[in-house]
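Dear Dr. V.,

Thank you for agreeing to look over these. As mentioned in my earlier message, I'm a first-year student in the group and I'm still getting used to reading structure tokens, so any feedback on how I've presented them would be very welcome. I ran two proteins. I've put each sequence directly above its structure. The first is here:
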Amino acid sequence: MANKYEIVKKNILDQILRGTYEKDQQLPTESDMMAAFSVSRYTVRRAISDLENEKFIYRVQGGGSFVADWSTTKKFEEIPKVIGILSTHVASYIFPAIIDGADQVLSENGFSLILANTHNDPVRERTALINLMSQNLGGLIIEPTQSAIDTPNVDLYQKLDQMNIPMIFINAAYNNFEGTTLLSDDKAAFYRATNYLIDRGHQKIIGIFQVSDSQGVHRLEGYLKAYQDHPNILPNCTPIMYKSDEVSDALQSTTELLLKEPEKRPTAIITYNDQLAIRIIDLIHDVGLSVPEDISVIGFDDFQLSQYLSPRLTTMTHAKQNMGKDAAKLLLQKIKHHKVTDIVYDSKLIARDSVKDIRKKAN
């Protein structure tokens, strides 16, 4: 739980960053803030002192506290040796590999890291951004939160831009904020993976996609394009879409399809990522079916555990550590004011044991 002075500081800083308090505008008096936040004078003074040290406000003796020209002040400071990484997740799945890749490059160049986690929640993202903006950063590597929609935190990204803090986006981009981006060619990857199943005789393929992220939207597009290129089986196309907090609904819909009679149920499932594929394999076993004998499964990301499952999971590669390294290299170039360009990674299919070839053999 945040200390009282941190709550006061965050509230004032948020209003400064939003533009509610403009340059040279006087802040409420200490007494007003004591009443508004139900805190002591010491707590208010500690919050104000922090903001003054971070150059967001200045004080006039006997006259109160005022909003500083903080964006200009921070532009011309010596570049700090701290880089922030803001990700939807930090300690699980493929994200440690991405962070490790970035850290290898940054530490070699004398930079240290601050990590922040949004849990794919825009409210958490806003809190994390405000906290990071008070850290005097040299740059930011960002994985967008719910990237399929316009970010409600675009004002903070614009402020970061005004502060001349370089940013690199990984895995996705925001529609309403332009930035240098590193991402996988998700549409092409899922087009290739879906065709891999079709080429092995599968016609009834469920595709399960998290569409609150642009990665999921593009993967869905690749799946649909593969079906569109095979119009004779297009009626069998069965996409299941869910938001990041609705995965249980997707699993329930999948269960209902798996419980159909053998001639009506799907023969294959392609999933948003390996993490979901692992849950789908458990689900298939729970309803008394097996992989790949009854249902074939393909994931995405080549998660480390995927090769140790039984059966070993067929999947598509993700750049992971290389993406982290490249993001750090591009960020260092931006810090030096060099021009950089986006990077798109091709994904390769890794054929393991979770897909069955069901084509009828010629006599």
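The second protein is here, in the same arrangement:
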Amino acid sequence: MTSFPLPAWRSPPAAARAAGTLCVLALAAGAADAQVTLGGTLDLATRHVRNGDLGSMNSVVSGANTTSKLVIRGREDLGGGLSAGFFLDGTILADSGAANSPFWDRRATIGLTHQRYGEMRMGRDWVPTQLVWNSMDPFATLGIAGANTFRSVYGSRALGQAFGSNAAGASQNPTLRVANAVEYILPGGLGGFNGALIATAGEGGSAGAGQTKGDGFRLGWAQGAWQLGASQFTVRNAAAEERFTDRVWGVGYDAGFARFSLAQRRWAYGSDTTVNSLFGVSVPMGAGQLKLSVLRADQTGATDALSANDATLLGVGYVYALSKRTALYAHAARLSNQGGASFAIAGGPATSGVATAANYFGGQRSTGFELGMRQDF
């Protein structure tokens, strides 16, 4: 065992203490019978975004090709086809060195898995709709061309009305992940079929504040060149205790020379809907991959004016693998708004959907380019 001199003690911040404790526990478990692994990714890119006549901005961003993250997971074989496991996954904001809040924001679960009967899982996890949607997007819903570009409480009226057009609604709305979840996941070996059920406890709070009361499902089939998926998640404590529904379906086909995908995601709250339609293509090119996508947001509201606020995103990218762990990439995107739509590519000058605001962006165009590197560990 290698020893290292210890520096003078200083009390670390809470997040660092939590991470350090978990690492010690992971190492202790690894010394016993449990299998514990530590891994993750660092991904950084330089980005340039121009938002119409509001000007442009340059930045360094984290996670434009693969989310920068720290992952600790473990599994213990209990015999008879049964195993216990945990999974901790937290975003690293690699451009600043900070961590997200909560620390394990991407996933924090514990569960029991049986080879024949499936898995029961509890904790913080992905909503089933995001899993299907992500699997159909060549850009994995990340970066300037990702299929979650229109997942904005400021641009999508259905999201804004359901969860609030504010910072809390933007970060806590349950179209990505949910807390306080109980899940059942189907086992493998079902002829290509896969699926899951999920229910979340609101614990007396509101969905816009991250305390979602909801339920949903995911069902898919993958065999040979084909992949099919459908999912729904219903939020039962959106604003005014009304229901919000998130539905996704998608089809993927790998023709060998290219993989094609077609998918749609629909958000609905009251009279407001936002329908995201995606067409994607991934083409292997030697050690690299060319990616193309077209994403369309069609909004419907109580008036013709609200129903005219649509947008289209065109994306192209190339990822070149230097090794199994390291890659370089370049992405370019153009977003065009119609009517009073004010969607924008992330990383540009601040925009507003309020017509009287100095930075009103309704009907304008947003363009972007990013160049980056990722490394898995």
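From my reading of the second output: The longest helix spans residues 14-31. The radius of gyration is 22 Å. Does that match how you would interpret it?

Kind regards,
E.
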